[in-house]
Amino acid sequence: MAIVGGMLALTALPVKAQKWEHLADTPQMGWSTWNKFQGNITEDIIKGIADAMVETGLRDAGYTYINIDDCWHGKRDADGFIQADAKKFPNGMKAVADYVHSRGLKLGIYSDAGTETCAGMPGSLGHEYQDAIQYARWGVDYLKYDWCNTTNVNPEGAYQLISDALRSAGRPIFLSMCEWGSSHPWKWAREIGHSWRTTPDIWCSFDSLRVFPGYSQFGVMQCIQLNDSLRQYAGRGYWNDPDMLEVGNGMTENEDRAHFTMWCMMASPLILGNDLRSMSEATRNIIMNKEMIAIDQDTLGIQGLHYCDRGGLQFWFKPLAGGDWAFTILNPTKKDIACELNWQDFNLTDTQVSKLSTNFDAVVYKVYNLWTHKMEGKTNRKSKTDRKLTVKAHDVIAYRLIK
Fold first, then answer.
1. CATH homologous superfamily of domain 29-296?
2. Average pLDDT of 163-168?
3. Residue 350 annotated to the active site
């Protein structure tokens, strides 16, 4: 307030900054250090991964971010600005960013809303604006912001603060919120962040928990189960994040294929976590499946619908731009399951989000197998059984239904 001409006048309050727009019109794609390397990261590893992303064609397939997770930190300087670990990054983070940018890629970095990161490095609490300025100076394009060591910190306030700081620093930086879904960020963070974690950390298992004192890591199926109930909160510019991909880190080929497929069906971020410099041909074929990636990156921006379970199988639909649908049968069990498929069983309307209908009783779709890359006929409006299928254990059959 101020006194003007003997009268009270209200001065304008500062306007709350919004996140940078159009950085997440489709779910982000890239690679992160954590799942494979954890704290054992160096400048040479980052540069080698950047080279591999270009040489393998991953960059051209849409994977653009190289994200350095926890343990890159050195100490703060006398003015409080964070520095990179000089042993791991002897040329500094600006040089790493310059190299990544020279390869047509973007650099991501990591911090934490608390006093320390999850690995005990300096957190951003009390240094939010300084850290945002430093990231902008370095040329960072992406920030993963974690939630360890945050006693008595309000999550909505903390994430709004770092979002405002990133905006004020003047460089468009993607904000990946990582508080594990504890405070239901999908209900309040649409204007703050570009994606938010919906689950605890993933680990390289298809269907089991990894239990530690005080917390557990989730397998693929546990992440799916938590994430698939939140589809109404995702859309263009804001995505549910069931954590990074474990493809290529030790599961079977079937499990990797199912893992990747379901992240695409759920319009999830596709952040790779394997060593791209030495991956198998099977891993390459999974993460480079451009037709499956197109399901994830579809411009309609709708998270897939877990429509029903039947005979041990899960049936999922995802509406796509132009009237197509993605359809996936997931087998979460440890045995192969045979089924008879009748499209008339799936005349559905997505009343929750898109309001679109499959209309199998009126529309005939071409059926394209997204993993064999072959047409498999058309949907049928008359016969009771259109096709007989066997879905392998911990595997999927996935189609694009083309209108």
1. Aldolase class I (3.20.20.70)
2. 98
3. no
